[in-house]
Amino acid sequence: MKKSFMLILLLMCLLNLACGRKTGEVEEGKASYYGKGFEGRETTNGEIFSNKKMTAAHKTLPIGTIVRVTNLANGKSIDVRINDRGPFIEGRIIDLTERAFGKIADKKLGTIDVRIQVLE
Known about the structure:
The chain contains two helices and six strands, in the order H-E-E-E-E-E-H-E. The protein is an alpha/beta fold. Mean pLDDT is 88; it is low at 5-17.
């Protein structure tokens, strides 16, 4: 009985993760960007990481999700595709490539306050 309950609970959690978020859903928090040490490594979806791409890491959004990231300080936005997991630093909600981060903020800032909206 206990094993069946745990199996059902596990399946419900996996289903929840697989369904992801709905288009238009919004989240706010801190964004950062990948350091140079990640260049050439494999991302969660098997791609080779490049700081020149318009991609990002998120803890829970399904791989392949397209999100709009808006810098709350200046209103600049970019669209990125989630292809990795992270960030693994408390308080951060998304890690962008250097290219993506640089389009909406000065990289010297390191982190910025953003809004992310699920597009697809």
